[in-house]
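User: My instructor asked us to take a sequence, write out its structure as tokens, and then describe one feature of it. I'm not sure where to start. Here is the sequence I was given:
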Amino acid sequence: MVINDEARQSAQKSHLFMLRVWLEDLGNGQMDWRGKVQHVNGGEVRYFRDWRALESFVEWKVLKNDANGVYIDEDSKSDNEPL
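Assistant: Let's start with the prediction itself. The structure tokens for your sequence are:
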């Protein structure tokens, strides 16, 4: 199978995450949400207890590299530029 440059660049701009959330019994009638997120492309896994931790991980993985493998500095991007 031959992959052209356009297909390769498109694949590099795409990220796949697997998310699992569950309600954990803390005892004494207390329950709390827990989660696990895996970046399928790279295999990294993070466990989290709040949505901000999940959001931070996903944002870090998506913004870490652009299609050319160069770090994206969010402060230098304008609001109308695509990710």
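For the description part of your assignment, you could build on this observation: The beta strands are 17-27, 30-39, 45-48. Try explaining in your own words what that tells you about the chain.
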